[in-house]
Amino acid sequence: MSKNFRLITDGLVKNNPTFVLLLGMCPTLATTTSAVNGLSMGLATLFVLVLSNVVISLIAPVVPDKVHIPVYIVVIATFVTLLQLLMQAFTPGMYETLGLFIPLIVVNCIVLGRAEAFASKNGALASACDGLGVGLGFTLALTVLGLVREILGSGSAFGWNFIGGRDGMLAFVMAPGAFICLGYLMVLFNKFLKKD
Amino acid sequence: MAAQSNLKNMVMVLGLTCLLCSAVLGGAYALTKDPIDAASKAKMDKAIGAVLPAFDETAPEAVEVDGKTYNYYKALKGGETVGYAVESTVVGFGGPLSLMVGVTPDGVVYNTSVLSHSETPGLGAKCNTDARFMAQWEGFNPAEKILTVKKDGGDVDAITASTITSRAYALAVKNAVDAVKSIGGPVHE
After folding, report:
1. A69, B4, B11, B117: least CB-packed within 10 angstroms?
2. How many structural domains does chain B have?
3. Which domain holds residue B93?
4. Domain for residue B113, yes or no?
5. pLDDT tens string A113-130
6. With contact defined as beta carbons under 8 Å apart, do B183 and B72 qualify?
7. Where are the beta strands (DSSP E) in chain A?
8. Chain segment A154-192, per-residue pLDDT in tens
9. Chain A interface, Cβ < 8 Å to B
Protein backbone atom coordinates (compact mmCIF):
# COMPACT_ATOMS: atom_id res chain seq x y z
CA MET A 1 0.00 0.00 0.00
CA SER A 2 2.80 2.40 0.84
CA LYS A 3 4.19 1.82 -2.65
CA ASN A 4 0.84 2.72 -4.18
CA PHE A 5 0.52 5.75 -1.92
CA ARG A 6 3.96 6.75 -3.07
CA LEU A 7 2.77 6.55 -6.69
CA ILE A 8 -0.02 9.00 -5.92
CA THR A 9 2.23 11.56 -4.22
CA ASP A 10 4.83 11.17 -6.98
CA GLY A 11 2.24 12.15 -9.55
CA LEU A 12 1.33 15.19 -7.49
CA VAL A 13 4.82 16.52 -6.92
CA LYS A 14 7.85 14.72 -8.33
CA ASN A 15 6.21 13.69 -11.61
CA ASN A 16 3.75 16.57 -11.78
CA PRO A 17 2.66 16.42 -15.42
CA THR A 18 2.37 20.16 -15.87
CA PHE A 19 5.10 21.70 -13.75
CA VAL A 20 7.76 18.99 -14.02
CA LEU A 21 7.10 16.79 -17.05
CA LEU A 22 5.65 19.65 -19.11
CA LEU A 23 3.12 17.35 -20.76
CA GLY A 24 -0.34 18.27 -22.00
CA MET A 25 0.40 21.93 -22.59
CA CYS A 26 -2.49 22.42 -25.03
CA PRO A 27 -5.34 21.89 -22.54
CA THR A 28 -3.25 23.54 -19.85
CA LEU A 29 -2.98 26.80 -21.72
CA ALA A 30 -6.36 26.69 -23.40
CA THR A 31 -8.72 25.80 -20.56
CA THR A 32 -7.25 27.66 -17.60
CA THR A 33 -8.99 30.97 -18.14
CA SER A 34 -10.73 30.48 -14.80
CA ALA A 35 -10.20 28.31 -11.75
CA VAL A 36 -13.42 26.38 -12.29
CA ASN A 37 -12.56 25.60 -15.92
CA GLY A 38 -9.10 24.40 -14.91
CA LEU A 39 -10.55 22.26 -12.15
CA SER A 40 -13.16 20.65 -14.40
CA MET A 41 -10.67 19.96 -17.16
CA GLY A 42 -8.32 18.41 -14.60
CA LEU A 43 -11.07 16.18 -13.22
CA ALA A 44 -12.16 15.13 -16.71
CA THR A 45 -8.61 14.12 -17.52
CA LEU A 46 -8.31 12.36 -14.17
CA PHE A 47 -11.37 10.26 -14.98
CA VAL A 48 -10.01 9.19 -18.36
CA LEU A 49 -6.50 8.65 -17.01
CA VAL A 50 -7.51 6.29 -14.18
CA LEU A 51 -9.86 4.19 -16.30
CA SER A 52 -7.61 3.95 -19.34
CA ASN A 53 -4.62 3.11 -17.12
CA VAL A 54 -6.54 0.26 -15.48
CA VAL A 55 -7.87 -1.19 -18.74
CA ILE A 56 -4.55 -0.88 -20.51
CA SER A 57 -2.65 -2.53 -17.67
CA LEU A 58 -5.10 -5.46 -17.91
CA ILE A 59 -4.95 -5.92 -21.67
CA ALA A 60 -1.27 -5.05 -22.17
CA PRO A 61 0.02 -8.66 -21.91
CA VAL A 62 -2.10 -9.87 -24.83
CA VAL A 63 -1.66 -6.86 -27.10
CA PRO A 64 0.88 -7.51 -29.87
CA ASP A 65 3.68 -5.02 -29.83
CA LYS A 66 3.12 -3.67 -33.34
CA VAL A 67 -0.48 -2.63 -32.75
CA HIS A 68 -0.22 -1.46 -29.15
CA ILE A 69 -0.51 2.27 -29.95
CA PRO A 70 -3.73 1.91 -32.01
CA VAL A 71 -5.24 -0.33 -29.35
CA TYR A 72 -4.40 2.14 -26.58
CA ILE A 73 -5.78 5.04 -28.59
CA VAL A 74 -9.03 3.18 -29.18
CA VAL A 75 -9.36 2.48 -25.44
CA ILE A 76 -8.61 6.09 -24.54
CA ALA A 77 -10.95 7.45 -27.21
CA THR A 78 -13.71 5.21 -25.89
CA PHE A 79 -13.42 6.61 -22.39
CA VAL A 80 -13.26 10.17 -23.68
CA THR A 81 -16.41 9.71 -25.76
CA LEU A 82 -18.09 8.06 -22.80
CA LEU A 83 -17.17 11.06 -20.65
CA GLN A 84 -18.43 13.43 -23.32
CA LEU A 85 -21.80 11.69 -23.52
CA LEU A 86 -22.15 11.59 -19.74
CA MET A 87 -21.25 15.25 -19.36
CA GLN A 88 -23.62 16.24 -22.12
CA ALA A 89 -26.41 14.31 -20.44
CA PHE A 90 -25.90 15.16 -16.79
CA THR A 91 -23.80 18.33 -16.56
CA PRO A 92 -24.83 20.33 -19.64
CA GLY A 93 -23.56 23.57 -18.11
CA MET A 94 -20.06 22.20 -17.67
CA TYR A 95 -20.20 20.62 -21.10
CA GLU A 96 -20.86 24.01 -22.61
CA THR A 97 -17.61 25.47 -21.27
CA LEU A 98 -15.41 22.44 -21.76
CA GLY A 99 -17.12 20.71 -24.68
CA LEU A 100 -14.57 21.90 -27.17
CA PHE A 101 -11.65 20.54 -25.18
CA ILE A 102 -13.01 17.18 -24.10
CA PRO A 103 -12.25 15.41 -27.41
CA LEU A 104 -8.72 16.76 -27.11
CA ILE A 105 -8.12 14.51 -24.11
CA VAL A 106 -7.75 11.66 -26.61
CA VAL A 107 -4.52 13.13 -27.87
CA ASN A 108 -3.42 14.49 -24.51
CA CYS A 109 0.09 13.12 -24.28
CA ILE A 110 -0.27 12.62 -20.52
CA VAL A 111 -2.83 9.87 -21.02
CA LEU A 112 -0.96 8.01 -23.74
CA GLY A 113 2.31 8.75 -21.97
CA ARG A 114 1.17 7.08 -18.73
CA ALA A 115 -0.27 4.15 -20.71
CA GLU A 116 3.06 3.61 -22.44
CA ALA A 117 5.43 4.39 -19.62
CA PHE A 118 3.54 2.91 -16.70
CA ALA A 119 0.28 1.04 -17.26
CA SER A 120 1.66 -1.32 -19.92
CA LYS A 121 4.34 -2.53 -17.50
CA ASN A 122 2.48 -2.61 -14.17
CA GLY A 123 -0.55 -4.19 -12.50
CA ALA A 124 -4.06 -2.78 -12.42
CA LEU A 125 -3.97 -1.41 -8.86
CA ALA A 126 -0.60 0.29 -9.29
CA SER A 127 -1.76 1.72 -12.62
CA ALA A 128 -4.94 3.07 -11.04
CA CYS A 129 -2.83 4.78 -8.34
CA ASP A 130 -0.48 6.17 -10.94
CA GLY A 131 -3.41 7.51 -12.94
CA LEU A 132 -4.93 8.99 -9.80
CA GLY A 133 -1.66 10.65 -8.80
CA VAL A 134 -0.87 12.09 -12.20
CA GLY A 135 -4.50 13.10 -12.68
CA LEU A 136 -4.55 14.88 -9.32
CA GLY A 137 -1.25 16.56 -10.15
CA PHE A 138 -2.74 17.78 -13.42
CA THR A 139 -5.92 18.93 -11.69
CA LEU A 140 -3.94 20.79 -9.04
CA ALA A 141 -1.74 22.48 -11.62
CA LEU A 142 -4.67 23.52 -13.80
CA THR A 143 -6.68 24.82 -10.86
CA VAL A 144 -3.79 26.91 -9.53
CA LEU A 145 -2.96 28.26 -12.97
CA GLY A 146 -6.64 28.97 -13.63
CA LEU A 147 -6.99 30.71 -10.25
CA VAL A 148 -3.98 32.95 -10.83
CA ARG A 149 -5.13 33.87 -14.33
CA GLU A 150 -8.68 34.49 -13.14
CA ILE A 151 -7.53 36.75 -10.30
CA LEU A 152 -5.20 38.77 -12.53
CA GLY A 153 -7.25 38.69 -15.70
CA SER A 154 -10.85 38.96 -14.58
CA GLY A 155 -10.54 40.10 -10.97
CA SER A 156 -12.44 37.14 -9.61
CA ALA A 157 -11.74 33.84 -7.88
CA PHE A 158 -13.85 30.73 -8.54
CA GLY A 159 -16.39 32.99 -10.21
CA TRP A 160 -16.64 35.38 -7.25
CA ASN A 161 -15.84 38.83 -8.53
CA PHE A 162 -14.03 41.22 -6.18
CA ILE A 163 -13.37 44.20 -8.41
CA GLY A 164 -17.00 44.99 -9.09
CA GLY A 165 -17.45 44.50 -12.82
CA ARG A 166 -14.37 46.43 -13.86
CA ASP A 167 -11.95 44.87 -16.30
CA GLY A 168 -8.94 42.97 -15.03
CA MET A 169 -5.62 42.73 -16.82
CA LEU A 170 -6.98 41.27 -20.01
CA ALA A 171 -3.63 39.94 -21.17
CA PHE A 172 -3.85 37.22 -18.52
CA VAL A 173 -7.08 35.90 -19.98
CA MET A 174 -5.38 35.36 -23.31
CA ALA A 175 -2.57 33.09 -24.42
CA PRO A 176 0.41 35.34 -23.60
CA GLY A 177 -0.76 35.66 -20.00
CA ALA A 178 -1.12 31.90 -19.83
CA PHE A 179 2.50 31.43 -20.82
CA ILE A 180 3.70 34.09 -18.36
CA CYS A 181 1.74 32.60 -15.44
CA LEU A 182 2.79 29.08 -16.31
CA GLY A 183 6.44 30.12 -16.42
CA TYR A 184 6.37 31.79 -13.03
CA LEU A 185 4.36 28.98 -11.42
CA MET A 186 6.87 26.48 -12.77
CA VAL A 187 9.74 28.46 -11.24
CA LEU A 188 8.01 28.61 -7.85
CA PHE A 189 7.03 24.94 -7.97
CA ASN A 190 10.50 23.75 -8.82
CA LYS A 191 12.13 26.01 -6.26
CA PHE A 192 9.99 25.13 -3.29
CA LEU A 193 8.33 21.78 -3.85
CA LYS A 194 10.31 19.48 -6.08
CA LYS A 195 12.77 17.58 -3.92
CA ASP A 196 14.59 14.69 -5.53
CA MET B 1 6.10 -8.10 -21.94
CA ALA B 2 3.86 -7.64 -24.95
CA ALA B 3 3.00 -10.62 -27.11
CA GLN B 4 4.86 -11.37 -30.34
CA SER B 5 3.19 -9.73 -33.33
CA ASN B 6 1.88 -11.80 -36.17
CA LEU B 7 -0.87 -10.98 -38.61
CA LYS B 8 -3.40 -13.22 -36.91
CA ASN B 9 -3.13 -11.86 -33.37
CA MET B 10 -2.76 -8.27 -34.56
CA VAL B 11 -6.01 -8.43 -36.49
CA MET B 12 -7.73 -10.32 -33.70
CA VAL B 13 -6.71 -8.00 -30.87
CA LEU B 14 -7.35 -4.79 -32.77
CA GLY B 15 -10.66 -6.07 -34.14
CA LEU B 16 -11.82 -7.30 -30.77
CA THR B 17 -10.83 -4.06 -29.04
CA CYS B 18 -12.74 -2.01 -31.57
CA LEU B 19 -15.77 -4.28 -31.33
CA LEU B 20 -15.86 -4.09 -27.53
CA CYS B 21 -15.36 -0.35 -27.50
CA SER B 22 -18.12 0.21 -30.06
CA ALA B 23 -20.44 -1.95 -27.99
CA VAL B 24 -19.70 0.10 -24.87
CA LEU B 25 -20.21 3.37 -26.71
CA GLY B 26 -23.37 2.15 -28.40
CA GLY B 27 -24.79 1.27 -25.00
CA ALA B 28 -23.73 4.58 -23.49
CA TYR B 29 -25.28 6.45 -26.41
CA ALA B 30 -28.58 4.65 -25.96
CA LEU B 31 -28.53 5.34 -22.22
CA THR B 32 -27.67 9.02 -22.48
CA LYS B 33 -29.77 9.88 -25.52
CA ASP B 34 -32.91 10.77 -23.55
CA PRO B 35 -31.18 12.87 -20.87
CA ILE B 36 -29.21 14.71 -23.60
CA ASP B 37 -32.36 15.44 -25.58
CA ALA B 38 -34.16 16.50 -22.41
CA ALA B 39 -31.28 18.79 -21.45
CA SER B 40 -31.16 20.47 -24.84
CA LYS B 41 -34.94 20.83 -24.90
CA ALA B 42 -34.93 22.30 -21.40
CA LYS B 43 -32.27 24.74 -22.52
CA MET B 44 -34.31 25.72 -25.55
CA ASP B 45 -37.48 26.17 -23.49
CA LYS B 46 -35.60 28.25 -20.95
CA ALA B 47 -34.17 30.44 -23.71
CA ILE B 48 -37.60 30.93 -25.28
CA GLY B 49 -39.11 31.75 -21.91
CA ALA B 50 -36.35 34.26 -21.23
CA VAL B 51 -36.73 36.21 -24.46
CA LEU B 52 -40.51 36.45 -24.77
CA PRO B 53 -43.36 37.88 -22.72
CA ALA B 54 -45.60 35.35 -20.94
CA PHE B 55 -47.24 32.87 -23.31
CA ASP B 56 -49.39 29.73 -23.21
CA GLU B 57 -47.91 27.70 -26.03
CA THR B 58 -45.27 27.81 -28.73
CA ALA B 59 -45.21 26.30 -32.18
CA PRO B 60 -41.94 25.60 -33.97
CA GLU B 61 -41.83 26.99 -37.50
CA ALA B 62 -39.20 28.01 -40.02
CA VAL B 63 -38.73 30.88 -42.44
CA GLU B 64 -36.20 31.46 -45.21
CA VAL B 65 -34.51 34.84 -45.63
CA ASP B 66 -31.85 35.37 -48.31
CA GLY B 67 -31.30 31.65 -48.68
CA LYS B 68 -30.80 31.14 -44.94
CA THR B 69 -33.33 29.19 -42.94
CA TYR B 70 -34.29 30.46 -39.53
CA ASN B 71 -36.06 28.26 -37.06
CA TYR B 72 -38.41 30.19 -34.88
CA TYR B 73 -41.05 29.62 -32.26
CA LYS B 74 -44.29 31.48 -32.50
CA ALA B 75 -45.59 32.19 -29.01
CA LEU B 76 -49.33 32.39 -28.50
CA LYS B 77 -51.34 33.63 -25.57
CA GLY B 78 -55.07 33.11 -25.72
CA GLY B 79 -54.84 32.51 -29.47
CA GLU B 80 -53.00 35.77 -30.09
CA THR B 81 -49.40 36.00 -31.19
CA VAL B 82 -47.36 37.67 -28.47
CA GLY B 83 -43.97 37.24 -30.08
CA TYR B 84 -41.50 35.21 -32.05
CA ALA B 85 -38.39 33.56 -30.62
CA VAL B 86 -35.92 33.27 -33.49
CA GLU B 87 -32.81 31.14 -33.45
CA SER B 88 -30.12 33.19 -35.12
CA THR B 89 -26.58 32.01 -35.76
CA VAL B 90 -23.71 34.11 -37.06
CA VAL B 91 -19.94 33.77 -37.14
CA GLY B 92 -18.47 35.35 -34.03
CA PHE B 93 -14.83 35.82 -33.12
CA GLY B 94 -14.06 32.26 -32.10
CA GLY B 95 -16.70 30.33 -34.03
CA PRO B 96 -20.46 30.21 -34.39
CA LEU B 97 -22.46 32.48 -32.11
CA SER B 98 -26.02 31.25 -31.60
CA LEU B 99 -28.67 33.48 -30.13
CA MET B 100 -32.32 33.18 -29.27
CA VAL B 101 -33.88 36.52 -30.09
CA GLY B 102 -37.36 37.36 -28.92
CA VAL B 103 -39.22 39.82 -31.11
CA THR B 104 -42.71 41.09 -30.40
CA PRO B 105 -45.12 41.38 -33.35
CA ASP B 106 -44.47 45.14 -33.60
CA GLY B 107 -40.85 44.42 -34.49
CA VAL B 108 -39.32 45.45 -31.17
CA VAL B 109 -36.73 43.16 -29.60
CA TYR B 110 -38.15 41.83 -26.35
CA ASN B 111 -34.97 40.22 -25.09
CA THR B 112 -32.06 38.08 -26.25
CA SER B 113 -30.29 35.06 -24.88
CA VAL B 114 -27.10 33.24 -25.91
CA LEU B 115 -27.67 29.62 -26.92
CA SER B 116 -24.05 28.76 -27.59
CA HIS B 117 -20.83 30.58 -28.35
CA SER B 118 -17.11 29.97 -28.59
CA GLU B 119 -15.91 33.49 -27.82
CA THR B 120 -12.75 34.23 -25.86
CA PRO B 121 -13.35 33.72 -22.14
CA GLY B 122 -13.02 37.01 -20.25
CA LEU B 123 -13.50 39.03 -23.44
CA GLY B 124 -16.12 38.07 -26.01
CA ALA B 125 -17.67 35.53 -23.65
CA LYS B 126 -18.93 38.52 -21.67
CA CYS B 127 -21.74 38.81 -24.24
CA ASN B 128 -23.35 36.15 -22.05
CA THR B 129 -22.56 37.68 -18.65
CA ASP B 130 -22.03 41.45 -18.96
CA ALA B 131 -25.17 42.99 -17.48
CA ARG B 132 -24.80 46.32 -19.26
CA PHE B 133 -24.34 44.73 -22.65
CA MET B 134 -27.22 42.33 -22.20
CA ALA B 135 -29.64 44.90 -20.79
CA GLN B 136 -29.47 47.11 -23.88
CA TRP B 137 -31.30 44.50 -25.96
CA GLU B 138 -34.37 44.62 -23.78
CA GLY B 139 -36.89 46.66 -25.70
CA PHE B 140 -34.43 47.56 -28.44
CA ASN B 141 -36.54 49.16 -31.16
CA PRO B 142 -34.92 48.76 -34.59
CA ALA B 143 -37.25 51.43 -35.94
CA GLU B 144 -35.69 54.07 -33.69
CA LYS B 145 -32.18 52.82 -33.20
CA ILE B 146 -29.60 51.42 -35.59
CA LEU B 147 -28.62 47.82 -35.05
CA THR B 148 -24.84 48.15 -35.37
CA VAL B 149 -22.16 48.95 -32.83
CA LYS B 150 -21.32 52.59 -32.10
CA LYS B 151 -17.97 52.26 -33.85
CA ASP B 152 -19.87 51.52 -37.08
CA GLY B 153 -22.26 54.40 -36.54
CA GLY B 154 -25.00 52.42 -34.81
CA ASP B 155 -26.55 52.47 -31.35
CA VAL B 156 -25.22 49.27 -29.82
CA ASP B 157 -22.78 49.61 -26.94
CA ALA B 158 -19.98 47.17 -27.65
CA ILE B 159 -18.21 45.13 -24.98
CA THR B 160 -14.79 46.58 -24.16
CA ALA B 161 -12.09 44.97 -26.33
CA SER B 162 -14.64 42.69 -28.01
CA THR B 163 -15.87 44.68 -30.97
CA ILE B 164 -15.98 41.66 -33.25
CA THR B 165 -18.17 39.69 -30.85
CA SER B 166 -20.42 42.71 -30.32
CA ARG B 167 -20.72 43.21 -34.07
CA ALA B 168 -21.63 39.56 -34.54
CA TYR B 169 -24.21 39.82 -31.74
CA ALA B 170 -25.78 42.88 -33.33
CA LEU B 171 -25.84 41.15 -36.70
CA ALA B 172 -27.53 38.08 -35.21
CA VAL B 173 -30.21 40.29 -33.65
CA LYS B 174 -30.65 42.18 -36.93
CA ASN B 175 -31.02 38.92 -38.86
CA ALA B 176 -33.64 37.77 -36.39
CA VAL B 177 -35.56 41.03 -36.69
CA ASP B 178 -35.41 40.74 -40.50
CA ALA B 179 -36.61 37.15 -40.26
CA VAL B 180 -39.61 38.25 -38.21
CA LYS B 181 -40.27 41.00 -40.75
CA SER B 182 -40.45 38.44 -43.53
CA ILE B 183 -42.77 36.21 -41.50
CA GLY B 184 -45.29 38.93 -42.03
CA GLY B 185 -47.15 40.59 -39.24
CA PRO B 186 -47.32 44.34 -38.78
CA VAL B 187 -43.71 45.38 -38.52
CA HIS B 188 -42.76 48.96 -39.11
CA GLU B 189 -39.71 49.76 -41.15
Report:
1. B4
2. 1
3. 48-182
4. yes
5. 888 888 888 888 888 888
6. yes
7. 156-157, 160-161
8. 777 777 777 776 667 878 888 888 899 999 998 988 888
9. 33-34, 37, 59-68, 70-71, 74-75, 77-78, 81-82, 85-86, 88-90, 92, 96, 100, 120-121, 153-154, 165, 167-168, 170, 173-174
